[in-house]
Protein 1
Amino acid sequence: MESICCAQVLYDFTAEPGNNELTVQEGEILTLTNQSIGSGWVEARNSRGNVGLVPEDYIEVKTILIISFVFVISLLYLEHIDFDIHRSLVFQSVILLLSVMVILCHMAVGSVYSFDEEWDDDSDDGKSTGGYGGSQAEEGGTMQRGGAHSTMKLSLNKFPGFSKTPNPEVYLLTKHISKGDDRLPIYMGEVGPVWLYPQIQLDCVVADPKKGSKMYGLKSYIEYQITPNTTNRPVNHRYKHFDWLYERLVEKFACALPIPCLPDKQVTGRFEEEFIKMRMERLQGWMSRMCRHPVISNSDVFQLFLNYRDEKEWKLGKRKAEKDEIVGVKIFSNIDPELPELDPAQVEQKYEMYSQFTRSMDNSVKELLAVGHLHWKRCTGPLQKEYRQIGKAFQNLSSVFNTSAYPREYTLKEALTATGKTYEEIAEIVAGQPKKDLHFLMETNHEYKGLLGCFPDTIAVHKAAIDKVKEADHLVVMNKISQQDKLIMEKNLSTMSYALQAEMNHFHSNRIYDYNRLVQFYLEEQVKFYETIAEKLKKALGQYTTM
Amino acid sequence: MESICCAQVLYDFTAEPGNNELTVQEGEILTLTNQSIGSGWVEARNSRGNVGLVPEDYIEVKTILIISFVFVISLLYLEHIDFDIHRSLVFQSVILLLSVMVILCHMAVGSVYSFDEEWDDDSDDGKSTGGYGGSQAEEGGTMQRGGAHSTMKLSLNKFPGFSKTPNPEVYLLTKHISKGDDRLPIYMGEVGPVWLYPQIQLDCVVADPKKGSKMYGLKSYIEYQITPNTTNRPVNHRYKHFDWLYERLVEKFACALPIPCLPDKQVTGRFEEEFIKMRMERLQGWMSRMCRHPVISNSDVFQLFLNYRDEKEWKLGKRKAEKDEIVGVKIFSNIDPELPELDPAQVEQKYEMYSQFTRSMDNSVKELLAVGHLHWKRCTGPLQKEYRQIGKAFQNLSSVFNTSAYPREYTLKEALTATGKTYEEIAEIVAGQPKKDLHFLMETNHEYKGLLGCFPDTIAVHKAAIDKVKEADHLVVMNKISQQDKLIMEKNLSTMSYALQAEMNHFHSNRIYDYNRLVQFYLEEQVKFYETIAEKLKKALGQYTTM
């Protein structure tokens, strides 16, 4: 069993001294010596024979991946066969091959679930991992199963003619007249340029995860129920549908709006319920953020996702969305700021400010995650242990006193036992607290880390546009473009800038709301935490006789 | 300078990971690389070139000790010369030699005080170190300067004819009639046999440490003022006088009563005031414990120490005490239990119980000290650092938010700053707390550890007596002793047992009082601690806008 359980390290991880951890580097191959450690950790041995704990989110189990890879290829092949026509010999033999693999995988992983989820996810969203933070240690990630390496990936091959950063030239040189339905107006609000917000804010509830299966039970998956507040009619979606939606949103909006990644898929699935709960929680967070966005929530593809009435409507909508031509930089042609044109210098100044702010906030959020991660480990590790030891020491003293045969022992003995038990309770309170308050702080910061990780891509498009416009004078002289073209470019750049400003104002408004709520909640829980402990100690204190 | 600052390790010390500590073993020679670390730590390099922190109580600075040793020898020589007669050439040259050494030592240590204290202590109580716990790591010791290795040492060479354990035979075979003044009665109290307690409990205040000097300022010392509640008239004593008293009490009472060691002397004296304060606190603790003991407090030597009127009375009393013949096992001849004689089986049963209890309590106290020590280090080390980091992370986030140029930033920015500052305050509260509550818990347990360390010696005398009486039948048969002798032995053994019972009941009563007060105080301070933090967080919470 052990022989086949090896794993590749995805991210550098530095061991904390005294915690039995193992320092590993990206790309390193480890042998897994114990996968049942729990709490997101596995025990592994490196090539130098050192054994220690590694966060399971930092590694990729190799054997599973290889088999999964074959699997995915097979499935991709199957996808091209029309299921409704006939089940040919080819199909049957592929099924047979898959069955053998399923059994092999079950043997390797020891869990039906982990394999199925694995397969499901790998086939569904195989392209959505990696990216942002790939070479950095994941500060908050290890405490929270999975969700980490989030960034928006501009699906480059979907934008014909784009190299790394989508080239805004196509858009800049075109004179646009915003069309009716797709028009995305920008108004001057109290805080500056803002998107048009709907009267009633869309929201939805992601709930009720259910295990479904297809292909004669060979392939199982989890289906979530999403109920929008507008129709109050639930729709069902699998993770792969969320991922499809994500891909569409990236294609369509990512040049103008940072689209945060979906919560990550996970490699092993030993804690089925816990994982599903966590993924649901994160899908809920992602959906709520999308719902809150006036442009995204109002888009056809998003509406389809929430409101489709039957399979047919869903399939038709899907096909339509996939054929949408207003994607990439073309989205700016829909944007219609009813505001005075900005000159390129103003545009550049805004760009610099936003670029600087998002970078700084990214660093700050990472710092908070890092210290939160440390604190989490301290509370659930050494601090819990220490309070337990204090509790035990008092109780042992009480036990010893109990053997004195001295007639006036009773009160003190009882009081010391109570004190010891109180400290044991405190140990559990301390260890349980991070889940109560730090969890939310970490999750939200994690989400923000993901969101902030998308800004550089989005902002890069603006930078490219600014550079193009800077070249315009030269191009006019060279007779490559007309003076008229230059003016169009400047107008279009102004439109892009308004889009960025509206988006930043949306971000700021959400950020202030989120962090206000977040820290408030954290402090409330912390106050309760300290008050609870004080209360418990007061009760123990009451057992002593006053002298 | 550095070259001469090497030190020998007195006790094994195991480094805690992540604290920059250095694991050292008894006997190892270290080079001191930084003596100005503070809080009881020095930085040292071992022979393998590893550098790290070591508790200064665990090491003995070598150069100082060597010079001190020569010094002590010289002084001992001086002590034998009558100062009042003449100052011969010999004396003058010794003074000259000493002066040169003083200068050398000053150069080596960089402090007048440390040398003088050193010298004073080494010459005064050179024999009172070592003993109990010598080979064990000192659990609570490092946080509290000095006071550790306490056990009573039966001054064996003062008990003629005793090998390791004082031999109770001399006493057992003698028929005693208790004399008037020295009689130590034992009564049956509510809790069993008890000493005769005085109407008013003696107590004293140790205060007002003053630096004195003699031998033309060459030798300086600290003199403490001790004021008993009986006379309210202060007397002055140096540490060496306390040590003299301790030696007398051990000589006279240690076979019957455990005499706890004095607080230890210290090797280096960099924190003059802190050290003097700590020693005074511990001398106060020791004196109070002695005052509380009905037998000790009533003894001539103890009364002399507290009540002498002038140098002459002190010197006469000293000489008388040193000539006291009722020492060692003879003390039992003064004991007069007005209670029915116990048979040897009853005696042995009591012995077993006390032996077991004191051993168990010793272990339990050591456990409490060990966990207290850990907790102290955690609070003043990693926890303080972590809360500071949390504070800093919030403040940094606030600074970043402040650069957004978004108009609705102010409240959140201010609230986050307040939150950050609150966590920085909490960091200091957490780090300062051990001095407020854990200190007293550690000190008292430390005192008990010392006291409990004396029981084995005292109890061993009883065990030896039990064994002698067990042999009595055989000796009667062999005609070595008469039947009458045997009955006398049994009666005397019964008297010894009553003494032990009275002493244990005294111990239990004090123990219950002390631990009740101790844990009560600790819990009170802990409650305040948690309430203070909750209060501070509540205040920070109030800065957020409710949404």
Protein 2
Amino acid sequence: MDENTGSEGVAGLFAPERVAVVGATESEGSIGRAIVENLRADFAGETVPVNPNYDDVFGLDCYPDVGSIPGEVQLAVVVVPPGIAVEAVAECGEAGIRNVVVITAGFGETGSEGASRERELTAVAEEYGLNLVGPNSLGVMSTPSGMNATFGPDNALPGSISFMSQSGAFITAVLDWANDEGIGFKDVVSLGNKAVMDETDFVEAWADDPDTDVILGYLEGVENGQSFIQSAREATAETPVVMVKSGRTEAGAQAVSSHTGTLAGSEQAYEAGLEQAGVLRVENVQELFDFAQILAGQPLPESDDVAIVTNAGGPGVMTTDAVGDSNLSLASFSEETLEALSASMPEEANIYNPIDAIGDADIDRFERALDLALGDENVGAAVVLSAPTAVIDFDDLAEAITELQADHGKPIAAVLMGGDRTESAKAVLRERGIPNYFDPARAVRSLDALVRYRDIRERDYEDPTEFDVDRERAREILERAEDRGDNRLGVEAMGLLDAYGIPTPEGTIAETPEDAVSAAEGIEGDVVMKIVSPDILHKSDIGGVRVGVPDEEVYDAFEDLVTRARNYQPDATILGVQVQEMVDLDSGTETIIGMNRDPQFGPLLLFGLGGIFVEVLEDTETRVAPVSEREATEMVEGIRSAPLLRGARGREPADREAVVESLQRLSQLVTDFPAILELDVNPLVAGPDGVAAVDVRLTVDTDEL
Amino acid sequence: MDENTGSEGVAGLFAPERVAVVGATESEGSIGRAIVENLRADFAGETVPVNPNYDDVFGLDCYPDVGSIPGEVQLAVVVVPPGIAVEAVAECGEAGIRNVVVITAGFGETGSEGASRERELTAVAEEYGLNLVGPNSLGVMSTPSGMNATFGPDNALPGSISFMSQSGAFITAVLDWANDEGIGFKDVVSLGNKAVMDETDFVEAWADDPDTDVILGYLEGVENGQSFIQSAREATAETPVVMVKSGRTEAGAQAVSSHTGTLAGSEQAYEAGLEQAGVLRVENVQELFDFAQILAGQPLPESDDVAIVTNAGGPGVMTTDAVGDSNLSLASFSEETLEALSASMPEEANIYNPIDAIGDADIDRFERALDLALGDENVGAAVVLSAPTAVIDFDDLAEAITELQADHGKPIAAVLMGGDRTESAKAVLRERGIPNYFDPARAVRSLDALVRYRDIRERDYEDPTEFDVDRERAREILERAEDRGDNRLGVEAMGLLDAYGIPTPEGTIAETPEDAVSAAEGIEGDVVMKIVSPDILHKSDIGGVRVGVPDEEVYDAFEDLVTRARNYQPDATILGVQVQEMVDLDSGTETIIGMNRDPQFGPLLLFGLGGIFVEVLEDTETRVAPVSEREATEMVEGIRSAPLLRGARGREPADREAVVESLQRLSQLVTDFPAILELDVNPLVAGPDGVAAVDVRLTVDTDEL
């Protein structure tokens, strides 16, 4: 429902001056009471109770309905029972309230009656052009005005992370924890059933919000993959987006569907789609907040090279291993730095990275080492790591770290290793956005998140190339499926590829032996002959393919192929025999390009090498179409077996550019024709000088044509 | 130095009645003072200062040397300067003190003078049969007697985890943190330079210690891989061993070598060796202690099936994903359990796993759900997960969890999500050995560690099969390398494989064209001919291989091959031309079996498929030899491309048993002959009915023969 929202609309949602609570009450233990109390506690604006049963609630004037409230109200929070909730929302619309949060449960999550109630709700929201959050939401918060329009026990601390969650309980848990950790938020929204506003709306809203430095999400599904990708790409040019998308595993996907009724798209599509959207996808809660904190607190590094400064060799080695596991690398210091380190460190110290200032390092030695490391132009970021020793005070070290971070403007993660004695130092570091962990691996992974986001931010999302294609011819070929009343097409649809410029061997479908002979005579050299029937999927298995047929044997081969097919399945529809130019398989590499449609993300392209590589080794790359040239190139270069295409083991390299172009052309084809549900070109033979699509199979939804 | 230690020896190290501190002093800031103070603080036994400069230290009688101490002393801690440390240790030996911890630094870690001092130290320890820890050690601790014979700032809390570390600073950091987390230890030892006692000794000692439930280690290297494997296998039948072996990555290995001077063995060897030893290897500090805590506190599950009980759907889904990522699976409840759950849960609850008791679940509902889940025979373990709600008190929930855990005897991990409000509940849980994490993924990974250890514990370490081989013939063939003055052998050494029962095609090395013809005539069908020269490694590249040569062309082929070799390298030593039976490559799969020697672990076997699979996809399995039949089978079945051997895509399955046997025979060969430094059989062709070793290449250390 993206058209409903705009920055001014969401301003009303998160920064209202007056909030109506529809269903406000003092009744002990009720949600209506909790919301009024939460708003009264910290909200800088006005809280307006609405309930026909009361004249006042907690001393505030209470109105019988929203229509009776004098003056403008920007946000209504609806907590009335499900039976009257839709009407209450309609009254909000009627009264000119543009932002509505529906707390009430008993909608899509509870069976068919609830689902139909949710459809009514959506219709009402559309009628009045409402920004509607929920239903079945915990509510919304926004810390600049202190607004806590939720029924949870805690308000958020102020900060620059804006957080959306498809689970209200997760918000409650996170706030309880974050408040003790000193982690603050700008806005928090419990998405509920997403009847109207969804993740795409909030990504867009927070991308435009100067007070939001990081967008965080817990999602169980994405409503509209294509528009999410578009919005997230725009957002991540300025603001990092970090998300848990749960239901990654088979068991998890099942749990999602019983939790929210969300129809699970394929994990492959989510993986590709979120990556293409520029989202930093994390797998667990710890990473979600580790990444959020450093992204909110530290600058992006200009290079991937990290300096490690420590007073403890062993933990220094562990940190180095963590760097080895990451996208970062260990910085090599310049000669100047090494000389300066050498002059200021004792002989037993290690001045090469990781710098080990050894156990008797005092604050001055530590500070000097870190200053020199950060001052080196080869260093993009630093990890400062200290074991507790008699000569170092963690508070002093924290002060030194924050000062040097500010001086050099390079990101730092700290590993002051210890228990309670680190608490005050941690607070000093946190104040300046520097995270501290006991485990060096967490510190390094956090810095790694900065580098990953920097790369996302620098991405150039070029438009997909538009090739000059014969769309009409493609449509005609697809319509044949409709004429035939069969939604499966095979080699008889090779023209589809040809129409979109994907090279196919010369060939035709002969309906008689005579046609086959004349087709073969028009083709140089021997030919390949294949039975063409929508009812015979595995042509080779029934002897339905003949390779290297000389012209003089084509007549007999035709009859033989048809006989075999008839013997195999007497009632099979036989469209003829394909007579095709021989493709040199020996000098080429068999690849597969394909597509299937995901319910959330739409067309999902697949690339891999033929034979065992896709089927046994599952060595594939997938992307949501349409793909740009860069994305198609990443698919081809990204498979593990890519070295084979580059000419491993003395083979001539395959024409990878031609493969990339074929993928882009396939992308255009499946984007142009939503009627194509599935399509496989297998094999697409990639030789040294171009490609040839030898076989194709597709499924068409003729209603979509 | 395993022969030096026995349980009585280590009892003296960790449970001495009297401890001498050689180098005791009151001098401010000195290590000698810190150790005396630490011992005086908590040690139940007697501390005996030794220093010729004082009559007493902190009011304790001080002796000029250990020889002057009346009565028996079980442990001496040596802190004198490096120049007199070796002598001080010798005096301990002379005085009958069997256990010595050398704190003094300035040995192997500091260059050649130190290294020679360390050799002297080792010699003295051997002379007197000492259990010597260090040098360059932080010291040792043992909580039953309160002994803190280290110079670190904190003593350990009592517990059942025994911990060794190659980094003293890491011990200091861990104790500071663990004391605040309430994590206790039995023994702690700082290994230092491991001049005498190493990780193997402590694995052995703690395996025999009834008060040690978990053995934990931070290692930068293993001194003797083979004896470590042996000892760890025995230990892990009763006691889990969890370790960080750092220097995993290239950068990390470099850092290790500059930190401790440890010669880094290959990461491949460590990976294989530690796995074969039954060690649970972890990659970071967080996992090290997460695993240690649950292994020390919870029983092992009888099945891998986990029940999740929660009041929060979203976090329940995240937990389910974490289960999907692990070796665990989601339990399916029995009909009875489902009926009982259905009867006691509200309609909106989800009674299927994960059980969602929903947000208004009070302690009774939660308890009932957990009780039913744990009572189900399909459930091996449980995760209990709660978001903070108005109706649940975490302390009550913690009580319920610990009681039900005790009643059912099944392991539980808790995820009470929140901040400080979880503290007291956490303490209750910890008391009963139940870990609590904010992140569900950590709880699940901890349970997973229990399952992994259970599987290790159930392992049956069968002995390697001893095949009947012709060892003398093998020796003769290896000695040819010595005769020739060349340590590289090629196809001329095929007899080596034959002597060890690895099938080779019929063949011989002909020195003249006439010999070649007569050899070919003795072989059925056409033959393969290959130039045999230690100077020509890539025979195919110079046209040095001819396949499918009919008998009548053998004479000319011989001359042609020799001419090509001469043209390629005029001074090459040419041993002749191999005339070999043709092997049917089409119906077989090319595999590679090989070996190289690791400095720590010795012979490391490798298995993979030929061609691109090893070289491009790096799809290999490695194991330290000798391997049992189970281990050889795991190698063959463990590669990603194993489905190809099992007959993927309509091929006949390869004779995997013959491959497994060849690996075992190769294992026996390289174990029998340490002189073989490297060996590759490439390819070993695996057909439907057996294997054939087509080519071999090896390097021999003739001094070892």
